[in-house]
Design a protein that fits this description.
The complex is a heterodimer of chains A (254) and B (257). In chain A, 36% of the residues lie in helices and 24% in strands. Chain A has 254 residues and is of the alpha/beta class. Chain B is mainly alpha-helical. Chain B has ten helices and no strands. Chain B has helices at residues 2-26, 38-50, 53-85, 87-100, 109-116, 120-144, 148-156, 161-199, 204-213, 217-245. In chain B, helix 3 (53-85) runs parallel beside helix 6 (120-144) and helix 3 (53-85) packs across helix 9. The longest helix of chain B is centred in the last third of the chain and has 39 residues, at 161-199. Chain B is globular. The two termini of chain B are 19 Å apart. The chains are: A alpha/beta (254), B mainly alpha (257). The interface between A and B is medium-sized, with 30 and 21 residues.
C-alpha cells in the first residue's frame, strides 16, 4: 500500500471562537502503488485537508496517515504537491523553478540542467526556460508546477484542484497530458477535485466524499484502459458514471 | 516617441512653474529681497558651478549621506533578516525599535555633537539613525510576510532551512528591502542637510545657512534647488538598481519615479 488513512479525524478551530469545524471524521482508505487516485466531493468537504495531511503540513487529530508504511511527521520531497494557485516562485525562472527540488537534493549542476531540459520538453516549455512565471499563462504555469513536482521523482504526487482556475480547453489538454505522464512513469498520484468529469477521466479509482465532516460515499473503479483518448469523455459508460456521481453529490450540495 | 512623451510630462509642469515665477518677478509683484527671480538664481547657480564652491559642498554632503546610509543598510538589513528568521530576536528588538523610532534624528543632534564632536562623524551617526529604522522595519516586514504557500511548496520539494533562507526568504523579501532602502536614503538626505544647518563647516546645509547670514538669498535658493535635484536623482538611482536586481517585478509594481 502506498497511502493508508486509518480512522483519521481532523477539526479546525474557528477564528476567535472556541467552536471547532469538524472536517474529517474517522476516514479510512488506501491508495495503491502506481495508482491514479482521485477524490471528488462537494466544495468545502475537506478534500484539501486530505492533501495537506499527506503532505505533512499538519498532523491529524486522531488516526494515522501512512505513506510507504511510515507515519508522516513533516513535508518531504518524497511527497511533492501541485497547488491550485501554482505556488511557483516568482523570483525564479521556469528552469530554476523546475530545478529547485533537485538543487535541494544536492544533484550536481550538470545533471540538474539535463533533467530540467528533459522535463521542459515533456511539458512543452523548452522555449520558456528563461522566462519568469509572471510572463506565462495559467496553463503554462501549471505545467511548470507539474514538471517541478515530477522532477524529484517523488514516491507520490499530491494535486490539490490543480486545474480549477484554468479555462475549459486548457484544462482538457492538461488532463490529457497528465494522464499520459502518469501512465508512462507509473507515478502514484493523489488528485483532489470537485469536477466529476475530471476525476473520471484521470482516475484509476475515484473516491466520492460526502459533505463535511467527510465520510466515504462510495468508490468507483474506472473501467477505461490507459492511455486514454479524449473521446472517452463522450462514451456512454463514462456519461453514466458521471451521472451516477452527480446524483450522489447533488444530495450533498443541497 | 514614448520617451519624448515622458520627458515632456516631467518638464512641462517645471517650466510652467519657472515661467510663472519669472513673470511675477519681472512684474515686480515679488520682492527680490524675499524671493529673487529664477534667472537670478540661475546665474548664481552657473557662477557657483564655475568657481567650484558648490561642488565642494555637494561632495561633503554626499559623502556624509553615503557613509551613514551604508552603515544603516548593512545593520538594518542584517538585523532585519536575523529578526525575521528568529522570532525570539524579533520579540526582543521590536519594543526597542518602536520606542526609538519616533525620536526624530534631529533631536539626537546635541548628543551626536557631545559624543562625536564636530565634523563628519556626528553627521554619519544622524544619517544612520534616519535611514536605519525604515530599512529595518521594511526588511523585517518583508521576511515575515512571505506567503505560507511558498513555504509549503519549498518544504515539500525537500528544502532544508539553508535553502529556504537563501532561495525563498531572501528573494521573496528583496522588494521590501529595496523599499526600505529607498525610503531610508531619502530620510538620510533630509537629515544630513538639517544636521549641516546646525553643526557643520561644509555641505549644502551649511552653505544655505552661511548665505542666509550674508543675506545672499539667490545662493540660498541655489542650495535648495541642488538639494532637490540630488534627492530626486538618488531616488531614481535606487529604482534603477531595483529593476536590475529584482527583474521578476514588473515595472508597474514598483514606484514609478
Amino acid at each position: 500500500m502506498k497511502v493508508k488513512f486509518q480512522n483519521v479525524s481532523k477539526s479546525f478551530n474557528r477564528r476567535n471562537t472556541s467552536s471547532a469545524i469538524e472536517v474529517l471524521r474517522d476516514l479510512s482508505f488506501e491508495v495503491k502503488e502506481s495508482e491514479f487516485f482521485c477524490i471528488v466531493g462537494p466544495s468545502g468537504c475537506g478534500k484539501s485537508t486530505i492533501i495537506n495531511l499527506v503532505a505533512g503540513f499538519f498532523p491529524p487529530d486522531s488516526g494515522e496517515v501512512n505513506v510507504d508504511g511510515k507515519a508522516i511527521t513533516k513535508p518531504s520531497a518524497s511527497r511533492t504537491v501541485v497547488f491550485q494557485d501554482y505556488a511557483l516562485f516568482p523570483w525564479k525562472t521556469v528552469a530554476e523553478n523546475i530545478e529547485f527540488g533537485l538543487k535541494c537534493a544536492n544533484v550536481d549542476k550538470e545533471q540538474r540542467l539535463q533533467m530540467v531540459k528533459k522535463l521542459a520538453e515533456k511539458v512543452r516549455l523548452e522555449q520558456f526556460l528563461d522566462h519568469y512565471p509572471d510572463e506565462l499563462s495559467g496553463g503554462m504555469k501549471q505545467r511548470v508546477a507539474i514538471a517541478r513536482a515530477f522532477a524529484v521523482k517523488p514516491s507520490i504526487i499530491l494535486m490539490d484542484e490543480p486545474f480549477a482556475s484554468l479555462d475549459q480547453q486548457t484544462r482538457d489538454i492538461l488532463q490529457e497530458e497528465l494522464v499520459g505522464f502518469q501512465n508512462e512513469l507509473s507515478q502514484t498520484i493523489l488528485f483532489v477535485t470537485h469536477n466529476i468529469e475530471e476525476a473520471l477521466f484521470l482516475g484509476d479509482k475515484v473516491l466520492v466524499l460526502s459533505h463535511r465532516p467527510a465520510h466515504i460515499k462510495f468508490f468507483i473503479n474506472v473501467p477505461f484502459p490507459k492511455p486514454r483518448s479524449p473521446d472517452i469523455r463522450n462514451d456512454p459508460q463514462f456519461l453514466k458514471l458521471k451521472h451516477e456521481i452527480w446524483h450522489s453529490l447533488r444530495e450533498e450540495v443541497i | 516617441m514614448a520617451k519624448l512623451k515622458s520627458v515632456t510630462r516631467l518638464l512641462l509642469p517645471i517650466i510652467s512653474f519657472l515661467l510663472l515665477w519669472q513673470i511675477l518677478s519681472s512684474l515686480e509683484i515679488l520682492n527680490p529681497q524675499f524671493l529673487p527671480s529664477p534667472l537670478n538664481v540661475g546665474r548664481e547657480l552657473v557662477d557657483s558651478l564655475i568657481n567650484q564652491n558648490l561642488l565642494v559642498d555637494v561632495f561633503a554632503s554626499l559623502k556624509r549621506v553615503v557613509i551613514g546610509f551604508l552603515i544603516a543598510a548593512v545593520l538594518g538589513i542584517g538585523i532585519g533578516l536575523f529578526a525575521g528568521f528568529n522570532r525570539a530576536t524579533a520579540n526582543f528588538v521590536t519594543p526597542l525599535i518602536e520606542l526609538f523610532r519616533p525620536i526624530p534624528p534631529i533631536a539626537w543632534i546635541p548628543l551626536a555633537i557631545l559624543w562625536f564632536g564636530l565634523g563628519d562623524k556626528p553627521a554619519y551617526f544622524l544619517v544612520f539613525l534616519g535611514a536605519f529604522f525604515p530599512i529595518f522595519t521594511n526588511v523585517l516586514f518583508g521576511v515575515t510576510a512571505v506567503e505560507e504557500t511558498y513555504k509549503r511548496a519549498a518544504y515539500s520539494l525537500g528544502a532544508t532551512r539553508r535553502h529556504f533562507i537563501t532561495d525563498i526568504l531572501i528573494p521573496a523579501s528583496l522588494p521590501h528591502i529595496f523599499t526600505g532602502m529607498r525610503i531610508g536614503l531619502g530620510v538620510g538626505w533630509i537629515v544630513v542637510i538639517t544636521a549641516e544647518l546646525v553643526g557643520a563647516q561644509s555641505g549644502l546645509g551649511y552653505m544655505i545657512q552661511f548665505n542666509r547670514l550674508l543675506l545672499e538669498t539667490p545662493k540660498v535658493i541655489v542650495g535648495m534647488v541642488v538639494i532637490g535635484i540630488i534627492g530626486f536623482l538618488m531616488n531614481k538611482l535606487m529604482v534603477q538598481l531595483e529593476h536590475k536586481l529584482v527583474p521578476w517585478k514588473k515595472s508597474e509594481q514598483t514606484s514609478r519615479l
